[in-house]
Amino acid sequence: MTPRERVLTALNRKEPDRVPVSFSLCPSQMERFRKETGATSPSEYFGFGTRGVGLARTKLKTDFSEYTSDYPEGTRVDEWGIGWVKTPTSFHFEHIQHPLAKATTVKEIEEYPFPDLDADYRYEGLAERVKKIKEQDYAVTASAMAVGGTVFWPPYKLRGMEQLLVDFMINPEIANAMLDAVTDRISVMAKRYAEADVDILNMADDLGTQLAPIISLDLFKKYIKDRLGKVIKSAKDVKPDILVFFHSDGHIQEFIPDLIEIGVDILNPVQPECMDPAEIKEKYGHKLALWGTIGTQTTLPFGTPEDVRQVVKDRMETVGKGGGFLIAPTHVIEPEVPWENIMAFIDAVEEFGYY
User: Fold this and answer.
1) Is 129 helix (H, G, I), strand (E, B) or coil?
2) Are residues 244 and 264 in contact, defined by beta-carbon separation less than 8 angstroms?
3) Predicted confidence band of residue 88 (pLDDT cuts 50, 70, 90)
4) What is the per-residue pLDDT across 203-260, written as a single tens digit (0 to 9) for each?
5) From CA 272, how far away is CA 134, in angstroms rounded?
6) Which of 156, 227, 303, 329 has the smallest number of Cβ neighbours within 10 A?
7) Which of 290, 351, 342 is nearest to 318 (CA)?
8) Cα–Cα distance between 333 and 28 in angstroms, integer?
9) Are 289 and 12 a contacting pair, CB within 8 Å?
10) 81 near 68, Cβ under 8 Å?
11) How buried is residue 211: exposed, middle or buried, by Cβ count under 10 Å (0-12/13-18/19+)?
12) 133 and 168 Cβ atoms separated by less than 8 Å
């Protein structure tokens, strides 16, 4: 099979010739990868079967000064007006500044200068890029997300997590206004990606802690479910066979039936520190493909190469049974992961991944 055929077969819950694989590396691991291999692209070097596309950067210079006056000096402000302050210890954790934290009325939400995600120039040449990637025999992914999420995370970063959760309980009109403003814009993005004929639409909203969901099932159904469904529908109305990938770290088992109901096809990352991948496969594998399952909090940083090998073997025998599996770490591979464990992961996939 070609890489494209392998990925799409697996994600359509069928058996390819072997289980497809993917991962991403943090900057220090990328440096190590280049040193160890002499190559520049893990996707090409290891033969990953997907390639991503995205929309162009905004050309607008929005004046957010009304909302950013109390941001710390040196804060980076994105097109949503959200502020990002680098920390000295980690490449992908930053302190977030929330431009709508002090809003008290729906009118303030409605008048906020949200970004334009429907401008034609942002999608210029997208369909041609998608076509070219397919001709190279890769599956094409695109992310219907902003600032890391689809429906829940952009409002939390605009408003602040604590304040948004308070809104859910005592300011539902503000919560609804925030969520609707984001959902409408992300739905446009999803539709444009479907029109460009991407294969896999990536969505994400981290809804779980290590032990339990962040919000109750009732709140998920009240505020999140239908809005995620609207984003999915906007894509599937255009391209019914588009595959919808949904990412949420943590324990989210209670939400899985509802995610299936609204059209999610692929669940990621199925974090093994929080949920049992074999159990998820047994319960939902007839309706969901699984992408991930290799712990980046446990196995990869703290296991031995033999531990990695055994975990991969177990995942192939359980989650991989019958197809519907793309094996991957549950997050970007962090600096603490030994290079030997990365290679043990790749070698084990090669050893145990054939059907």
Assistant:
1) helix
2) yes
3) confident
4) 999 999 999 999 999 999 999 999 999 999 999 999 999 999 999 999 999 999 999 9
5) 32
6) 303
7) 290
8) 10
9) yes
10) yes
11) exposed
12) no
> What is residue 105's predicted lDDT score, i.e. its pLDDT?
97
- Neighbouring CB atoms inside 10 A of 206's CB total 16
The alpha carbon of 11 is separated from its chain's Cα centroid by a whole number of angstroms, namely 15
Cβ–Cβ < 8 Å for 163, 101:
yes
Tokens found for residue 89: 């210890």
- Residue ranges per structural domain of the chain: 1-49+269-355
Across the strands, what pairs with 207? none
* Token pair for 12: 């359509």
Which of 190, 201, 184, 182 has its CA nearest to residue 80? 182
Q: Can you tell me which residue has the tokens 């594998």? A: 285
3-class state of residue 351 by DSSP: helix
Q: What is the pLDDT of residues 303-331, one digit of tens each?
A: 999 999 999 999 999 999 999 999 999 99
